[in-house]
Task: inverse folding
């Protein structure tokens, strides 16, 4: 497959929003509370793109996945109930989702690899992320891809499991 990993543009918002809407529905079908409170939404995606944090994984010019990627930009991580592995610069990703047409084809793992490449390209050796306690697919990815559980963080009143990978 021919992968392209690039910054998202305003023109990509309808496709990204569809991917996220499908992911929101999957989370609900799985019995999860994650993403069931009006977040994320199209304004979130537009903001990601405006601050140049929105990225897409394309396969043969079709958007297969989306993630927001930031550097040192998650204030809640300062309030971790636990202990991070490192204290220096870090890459954080949010809103990672795969298009339903690409589910089960390794695209989430590919997004993780692209995020690792992004970190290395910016000379950063730490990736931090979090997910809901009941997001079994993401928890499985964290464990399989060498992330370490570091504790809990809180978003919109809910605890999330926080992970870090040192590259």
Result:
């Amino acid at each position: 497959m021919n992968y392209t990993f690039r910054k998202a543009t305003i023109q990509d918002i309808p496709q990204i929003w569809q991917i996220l809407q499908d992911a929101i529905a999957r989370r609900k079908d799985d019995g999860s509370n994650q993403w069931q409170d009006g977040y994320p939404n199209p304004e979130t995606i537009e903001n990601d793109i405006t601050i140049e944090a929105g990225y897409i994984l394309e396969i043969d010019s079709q958007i297969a996945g989306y993630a927001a990627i930031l550097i040192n930009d998650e204030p809640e991580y300062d309030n971790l109930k636990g202990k991070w592995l490192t204290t220096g610069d870090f890459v954080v990703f949010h809103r990672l989702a795969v298009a339903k047409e690409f589910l089960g084809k390794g695209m989430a793992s590919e997004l993780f690899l692209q995020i690792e490449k992004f970190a290395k390209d910016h000379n950063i050796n730490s990736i931090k992320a979090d997910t809901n306690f009941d997001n079994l697919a993401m928890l499985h990815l964290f464990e399989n891809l060498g992330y370490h559980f570091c504790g809990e963080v809180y978003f919109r009143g809910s605890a999330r499991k926080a992970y870090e990978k040192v590259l």
In short: The chain has four helices and eight strands. Residues 13-29 form the longest helix (17 residues). The chain has a mean pLDDT of 95. The domain at 3-166 is CATH 3.40.630.30 (Aminopeptidase).
